[in-house]
Amino acid sequence: MQAWFARRYGGVDVLRLEELATPTPRAGQLLIRVHATTVNSADVRVRACNFPRGTKTIGRLVLGWNGPRQPMLGTELAGVVEAVGPGVNRFRSGDKVFAFPGGKMGSHAQFVVMSENGPVAHIPEGLDFASAASLSFGGTTALHFLRAARLRPDDSLLVLGGSGAVGLAMVQLGRHQGAKVTATTSTLNCELVADHGANSVIDYTTPPVSGRYDIIADTVGAMNFTTAQDVLKPHGRYLAIAGGLAEMVGALRPGPHNTKMIAGPATESLQDITELARLFGAGHFRSHIDHVYSWPDLPAAHAHADTGRKRGSVVVTLRE
Ligand SMILES: NC(=O)c1ccc[n+]([C@@H]2O[C@H](COP(=O)([O-])OP(=O)(O)OC[C@H]3O[C@@H](n4cnc5c(N)ncnc54)[C@H](OP(=O)(O)O)[C@@H]3O)[C@@H](O)[C@H]2O)c1
User: Fold this and answer.
1) Rounded CA gap, 270 and 256, in Å?
2) Residue nearest ligand 1's atom 42 by CA
3) Measured in angstroms, how far is the CA atom of residue 64 from the centroid of ligand 1?
4) Fewest beta carbons within 10 Å, which of 30, 53, 91, 213?
5) Where is the Enoyl reductase (ER) domain (predicted)?
């Protein structure tokens, strides 16, 4: 089979397409023939060794000093079960599935082995491979942070950066959970963000954000906990989704007026991707695809994600 590898840190030129043996599923595992995957902000952060502020040393210690320890990137995928190992009950050959290896990565390959108890689920009715592949990354991040924020119906939620993979998920899931959602984005993306359920959209190229909010979901680092105080209500929560070490440390103590900062990595779970499939089926959540690249063009998908301006997800398709 073929897979894309980043064996050292750097620009898109470090990516190489290599041949390797197709894995065999062991007991409790399934082999998935990948039809679609994505290139997202996590892939380009790892490829470029561009970790959030203050986490470069710890990032290299954990993920690899001179290059990614897991050189096969790719956090999410959709495809068809090719074979199952002994004892697998949840899946059969031919099932259409989507999966979220998340931080373990390894989705930029023609075949991927997953544990049947891992974050892998059946593709809901009505979802194509490209859309199913792009359901998990933004969606699970938004679910994690909304849970941590203990969002209550009628809370006011300000999403800073409403048009990225995480931002579009945060807008939809916040709205579904009953929040009044305001989102910032550039002029070009105002319509897209409104179309995903924002009650109001602020063009960030015009004067600064005003008003008071119960929750600020900062997906771009447009504010920090200090500047967020100007627009946060007492007891408000500032979600430093793009935050680094300072935010993780700062989150350990409360802010003025009982405000709270929440930071750190989002969890990855079967429950959350199953919930996203259910929400898709109920019409409350969908992924937005900015552009689809072919398998040999995966480096172009990295270059697109590198711009920091993608709208929703950038998908790479391997088969129809
Ligand atoms: N904590 C965690 O576990 C976790 C999990 C996932 C992601 N993240 C982090 O969250 C961040 C967002 O991830 P993502 O995948 O959503 O990124 P993304 O899809 O690459 O975000 C791109 C979007 O950001 C918007 N943007 C850029 N600067 C902006 C600004 N100043 N104000 C408003 N919008 C702005 C762009 O819109 P315009 O073109 O309109 O500017 C673009 O649509 C990344 O830093 C990522 O590392 C953290």
Assistant:
1) 36
2) 309
3) 24
4) 53
5) 10-316
Contact 166, 141 (CB under 8 A): yes
Q: 189: Cβ below 6 Å to ligand 1?
A: yes
* Beta strand 29-38 pairing with 313-317: antiparallel
Please determine, for residue 29, whether its predicted confidence score (pLDDT) is greater than 90: yes
222 φ, ψ to 5°? Answer: -75, -25
Q: Is 310 in the pocket of ligand 1 (CB under 6 A)?
A: yes
Taking the C-alpha atoms of residue 160 and residue 189, their distance in angstroms, rounded to an integer, is: 13
Structural tokens at position 7 = 């064996």
Q: How far apart are CA 168 and CA 161, in angstroms?
A: 8
Enumerate domains of the chain plus CATH numbers: 2-135+287-317 (3.90.180.10), 138-262 (3.40.50.720)
Q: Which atom of ligand 1 is nearest to the CA of 313?
A: 19
* Sign of the torsion angle spanned by Cα atoms 98, 100, 106, 108: positive
Residue nearest to ligand 1 atom 37, measured at CA = 309
Q: Is the CB of 266 under 6 A from ligand 1?
A: yes
The protein residue whose alpha carbon is closest to atom 45 in ligand 1 is: 242
Q: Among candidates 44, 234, 259, 243, which has minimal Cα distance to 161?
A: 243
Nearest ligand 1 atom to alpha carbon 265:
3
